[in-house]
Amino acid sequence: MKKIIAVLCAVWISISTVCATSVEVRSARALYAKKDYVGVMENLKKAIKEDSKDVEALFMLSVLYYEMNDFDNAFKYIDKAIKYGKKDPNLPIYHGTKASFYLESNDTVAALKEYDFAISLDPSNKYVLLDRAIMFRKMKQYDKSTAELKKVIAMEPNHQAYRGVAQNEYLKENYKAAADWYTTTLENFSDSYYTYILRGKSYLMMKEYDKAFDDAVSAISTKYFEEASHLLNELVDSTSFDSVMAKLKNRVEETPSKLISENVIPNLYYNYGKVYEAIDIYSSTLHSGEANEYLACLYIADCYLLAGEYDKALAYCDSAYAVDPKKMRCWRSKLRIYTVMGEYDKALATADVLLEDNSNSGVKRLSKKALLDKKSLLDKKSEIKQLKGDLQGAMDDLEQSCAIAEDNFDNLKKATLLYKMGRQKDGELILNKLLEDQEFVSGRHAKYAYALLGQKDKARSLCETEIAEDSDDYFNIACTYGVLGEYSKGLPYIRKSLEKQPTYIVDILVDFDMEEYKKLPEFWNLINEFRPKKR
Q1: Class of domain 1-171
Q2: Does the global pTM surpass 0.70?
C-alpha cells in the first residue's frame, strides 16, 4: 500500500528529528536515502546489538522489514519498539505503524484496535489520522475516512488530506465534489502534478472532456507522463481517437511542445494500433538526433512487435543495447518478443539474464521493488514453461514467486497448473479455499474458479452478468469460456478486448489460456483483423 509506505517514511524522518539518535541510526537514515538497504540493515542491527532497547532503531528496522514484505519480522520489531517505548513521545506513531502492518495484512479488526489506541494516546497525531483514514477507505467507510482527513486539514494545509477527501468523494461517485477538492489541492500545492491526473478522471466521469484533456496535458510535462497517456486513452474511449488526436495536434500548433509532438502523439498512435504512423515519428526524431536514442529504439521495437515484424523488433532491441549495454529494458523487450514468437528457450534464457541482474543489484540491497520485480520475472518464467509444456518447471518457478509474495491470484494460478498436471484433487482444495474468501468471490476471477470446478452454470452466469470495463475484463471472460470449452462464446469477448485496446494482441498471444483458441481459424482471423497491416 504505497500511501502507507509514504506516511511511514515521513514518520521515520519526523521521529529522527526529535529522538536522541545514535551514530548507527544516523548512518542508517543516510543510507536509506541512497536506497542502500543492506547498509541500513547492518547499521540498525549494530545499533540494536549495542543497545537492545534503542527504540528508534527497532522502529526503523520494523519499517524496513515491512518494505521487504517480511511481516513476521516487521511485527517482531514494532512490538519491541512499543515495549521499550512506553514513555516515548512517539508511542502513538508506533501503534499507528503496527496498525498499518495489520491493514496491509488485511486484518482490519486488529488495525482498527491499534489505531483507536494510538488516537487515545494522541488525538491530534496527523500521521495516525492519515493512516486511519486510509483504513476506513479500504473498508469503504468513506465518510469516516473523510472525517479523519478533515481533522488533519483543521490543523494544517495537508496535501495527502486534501487529496484523500477528493478520492473519497470520487469513490462515492460525487465527481463534482471530487474535482473541487482536487482543485483546492492544486491551489494549496502548485507542484502537485499527479493531482491533475486525478482531477482529469473526475472531469472525465462528469463528461467534461475539454477539462479532462487540459488536465492530461498539464501533467504531461512531469514524471507522470505514463499516467497522463492513460488518461488520454480513457478520453479516446469516451470520445474518439480522431477527436483526441486533433486536440493534441491543435495544442502543439498553439504552443509548440516536443514532448507532445515526439512522445505523446506517437504513443497514442501506438496504443490504437497505428504503429507505422508512430514509427515514422520516432524514426524522424532518431534521424534528427534530438531523441533519447535508447528509448526511441525500444519504442520502435514495440511497434514492430505489434505489427508482427519480429526480426525488425529484435534488431531495434539490439540497437538499444548498443547505445547503452548497462540498461536492462532492452532485455525485457526481447523477452516479450521471443515469447510471442514461440522461441521459448530464448525467452527463458533472456529471463535468466534479467534475474541475474536483479540478483546482482536490487535484491542484494533488500529493495522491495527489486523483490517484486524478481517475483514478476519468476511468474513470467512459469508462464513460458507452461507454454513450452514443462509443467513441473512451471510449478517450481511459481512456488519461488509465491515465496516472495502470495495473493489469491497466485493461488488461482497454482490450482490451474495442478489441474493441467493431473492433480485435480489438489487443485480443488485450493479453489474451494479461495471460494471461502468473500473478496475473491466478489472479484473478477471467481468465474474462472467455478469453471475449473465444473460448476458451469455458475461460471456462465457470472460471464453473462459481468459489467466489463476494460480489455482485461473482456479477456478474462474469454478465458473462462475457454475453460468451459465454449470457444464460440469466448471469441466475441476477445474481439471486444481488442476493440478496447488493439495493443492487447501481444498479451493474448502469450497467454497459456489461449492455446486451445489458437487451434481455431476464427481466432487467427481476429488477430489478423486487428494487427496493423504490414507496409
Answers
A1: mainly alpha
A2: yes
